[in-house]
Amino acid sequence: MSALNVNDISYEEKQLFVPSLNEVKTVLESALLNNFEDVTVEVVECPNLSKSPYDLVDCGLGGSPLLLEVGGPPFLLPLVQRSKVYDLKSLIRKCYPAANSSILAIGAGAGPFPIRGTNCEGIYNMKVAANGDVTNSSYTAKVHGPNEECVLEKVPPTETRSALLLNLFLSQGLPGKVLKVVCRKRKGNENFVECMRLGLAKNYGEKCVGMGGIFLIKKGHVHQHVMRDFSKTPIHTDEDVNNWLKFYNMPAQLNAVGTLVTHENDLDLRLQHFHSFSSSNWGGHYHYDTTPDVVEYEGYFNIAEKIVRMDKPTVTHKVGRD
Q1: Domain range 12-310, CATH architecture
Q2: What 3-state DSSP class applies to 88?
Q3: Distance separating alpha carbons of residues 202 and 143, to the nearest angstrom
């Protein structure tokens, strides 16, 4: 199945409020201490994220960072719109029309169902060079077989499609300062991402702040879903969604990539979206940890300068956005 022409889909962009890393450090530390026993937030030189245990395709999160959201749950629910297939390479280069550099794209979305023959999660980890060459270590996760096992698979290196809905953090993949966030022993009810997002939203109010990056679940287990194949009956409520999804209790280590933003900014945005991959057969959509006494998170994030919204649904709803 061919992808939509990037010039035929809608495109909007808005500047985000960009506080300093040091200011955000203080905000996140305060919020996370309400939810975790042990919290460290630092502004550090980004480690080489292309090395183990991070395994991204470029070394850093710096260089004109932005958030990209494409499509959305209305293209999946109540029934799938199979025509909504996108070429990531084209989307990414459109966000940086004048850039003479590689662009790193990491994040969460629906996977390229044509190559799997079924609906699947997409865990995106890709670099597009200025000359168009692609370095691709993305994954899909699908529900497979009569026992509904989770199956995590690398996508072919030349496969650059995604489908339906997508949230990416884009940058030039450069080294530089980032936020390092380490949390252990959850004592509150908010998940790791939600706690950071709500803390930022409370502090900055109407100013829209966005971040993206990678976090590791280093110890413990997490509640994650993988989408089953496309539903043949309409899905209208979040209860319907939860009955359709397949949930798993997945063990560490998991590497989660994605984005968060403090509010919709009149763009019908998904506020948080992270998908994980691993060196085992586990991967999917992060919800929350299930072992609060032992869980350990280690994350690296950068603040986005703007948000790009492509192919925003003209008919929308709020179902399926957890």
Answers
A1: 2-Layer Sandwich (3.30)
A2: helix
A3: 37
